[in-house]
TrEMBL record:
SUPFAM superfamilies: SGNH hydrolase. Residues 274-384 form the Sialate O-acetylesterase domain. It comes from Companilactobacillus alimentarius DSM 20249. GO terms for molecular function: sialate O-acetylesterase activity. GO terms for biological process: carbohydrate metabolic process. Coiled coil: none annotated. InterPro entries: SASA, SGNH_hydro_sf, SIAE. This is Sialate O-acetylesterase domain-containing protein. The keyword Heme does not apply. Keywords: Hydrolase.
Amino acid sequence: MSSLRLDNIYTDGMVVPANKPFKISGQAIRNTQVTLEVLDKTYSVKANEKGDWVIEIAPIPIQVTTNIKISSLDEFIVLKKVRTGTVILLTGQSNIEFKFRDDSEYQEQIAHLNLKNVYFYNVPQLEYQDDKITLPKDLETSKWQIANAETLWEMSDIGFWMIKKLHELNPDEVIGIVDCYKGGTSISSWVPESVLNSDNKLIDTFVKPFKIATTNKSKADYEQEFSDYNAAVEKHNTDLAKFQSENPKVSLSDAKDRVGHTPWPPPMTPTSYLRPNGLFHTMIEQVKNYVVDKVVWYQGENDAPNPDVYGTMLKGLIISWRKLFCDKSLPFYVVQLPGYFDEPKDSWAIIRQYQLEVTQNINDVHLISIADTGEKHNIHPTHKRIAGTRIGEIISGNGYDSTPYVYRQQIVGDKLILFVKAAGILSQKGKTEFLVQRNGTWVKQEVNAVGKIIAIDNAENITKIRYAYENYPTCTLFNEFLAPVAPFEMEIK
């Protein structure tokens, strides 16, 4: 077995950021010299006591394709057809993991595919790694591959529609997508210990429950918990199948509304991928040395039971990832949750509010609202065109860097005026109503959009307002690119 190795993401055909320093890392015999050659330049570094090494390479211009040679002692590796372009990290849980092959438009899109210069890498979904750093034998490996009719079935559905729009806007741009996601996960799985231990509420919400669930239990205890869980899942599936056979004209969404949804999450164990900090170490740290241009974060569904701590978690995630990637200004694009009814009251609305607030309070963090999409009783819609296309439009840099949102308020006479960013002119789809709180009572009130401001009459005694503040909202305000004004709650001062 060769002693000179590269970290898994470094393969032939990879895409590295253009005009930006990037890194290549791997392992060699400890304390030996590692040399890298690219475009007539040579770099050298000594492997540390563990044999790990990282080499930083000076920026390479856009639209360059080259080979990179790495050598140590009498061994060498050649990375072939390394391209420069724009590198985007797609990350989160199941709705960004949702595969393009499961999209309702998959067959039609594949039949009329017109893509070039697009490449992607799926980070292996390593759930647990022991202290000996041994990898599971059944862990799927990955490599960089071109996005075409033979490979796109493996890509994120959101990712496909995003690159389709980017390609339409700039057909000659080389795009590299790093897919790093895992369905069913809380944001707590994606942050380091330092984030969870920084706040007592986070300790009470995530750290202590995990400790209780995994302490002083025998193998038989875990087996019994999983037996009970599997029985509950089997009963649910049986009940759902029975209901559907008796009601063949009822949609799956409505059937689940009657029968209930699949029980989740499964019981916690010390090695569960749902454990706090787990995927930060097993997946994000896999690619910590790979330099990216932008991060798209689409997650939050699994934090509906604890929405009040989501803002603290999201802020901690962004700061800790920027530290891990050694990029203090790494742009983040936070996808505001779509509509979905079957969660505790206002839990998704609360998470959307925190997603909005974090993007307003941290530099280079942008909001992409898809609250006008989603299905009432289906948490995994098969229509991702609108969401993915909107992400592509916004991260392209060709227009607004976010969807529209209210950023300022002002009382003028008896009117409350709300100012909207990322809009030239607002349009309304039907009647627009806000929830307005006066003297502790919430009432609906119709509002009007003029240009890029929103006017609310009779502003006296208003203390708080809400727009589309529901799990499954109705969005009626849009900018000229048909992007929705982000749902929000605001105190009136």
